[in-house]
């Protein structure tokens, strides 16, 4: 058995860097879970209102991006491939906003209103 004595541990750290990321994600997740578990009253309503506003912005961005397709009477297209190049960014941001709002609403289910 041959061991490498010249290593200063940097190689081993770089091989296991993911451990720090897992620890940080676990810490942030526990803080977020604690925040949503303790929501009640006015703070819960504010989070709900923010979720509704973000969802409304997302739906309006998706509608804005799809207007040229609606004018062509193409109502059932999925993805950004059929959209004009200038509207694809707003389409993607619209879906990001909607996904964020849905995630916020699911987190609000953890709390007691």
Task: Break the fold down into its secondary structure elements and pairings.
Layout: H1 10-15, H2 18-37, H3 42-71, H4 88-108
Your description of this structure?
Helices cover 68% and strands 0% of the residues. It is flat and about 65 Å long. It has one domain (10-108). The longest helix has 30 residues, at 42-71. The protein is mainly alpha-helical and 113 residues long.
Quick overview:
The chain is mostly helical and 113 residues long. 68% of the residues lie in helices and 0% in strands. It has 4 helices and no strands.
What percent of residues are in strands? under 5%
Uncertain runs: none
Overall 3D geometry? flat
Measured distance between first and last alpha carbons? 63 Å
- Overall pLDDT level: 86
**Largest β sheet strand count, sense and barrel closure:** none
Helix vs. strand class: mainly alpha
**How big is the Rg?**
23 Å
User: Could you tell me the number of beta strands?
Assistant: 0
Report the helical percentage: 55-70%
Elements, N to C (H/E): HHHH
Integer tally of domains: 1
User: In DSSP terms, counting alpha (H) and pi (I) runs of 4 or more, how many helices?
Assistant: 4
């Amino acid at each position: 058995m041959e061991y490498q004595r010249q290593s200063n541990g940097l190689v081993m750290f770089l091989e296991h860097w993911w451990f720090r990321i897992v620890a940080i994600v676990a810490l942030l997740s526990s803080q977020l879970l604690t925040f949503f578990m303790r929501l009640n009253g006015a703070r819960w309503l504010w989070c709900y209102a923010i979720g509704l506003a973000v969802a409304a912005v997302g739906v309006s961005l998706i509608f804005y991006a799809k207007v040229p397709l609606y004018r062509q009477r193409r109502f059932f297209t999925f993805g950004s491939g059929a959209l004009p190049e200038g509207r694809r960014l707003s389409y993607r941001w619209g879906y990001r906003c909607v996904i964020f709002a849905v995630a916020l609403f699911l987190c609000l289910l953890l709390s007691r209103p």
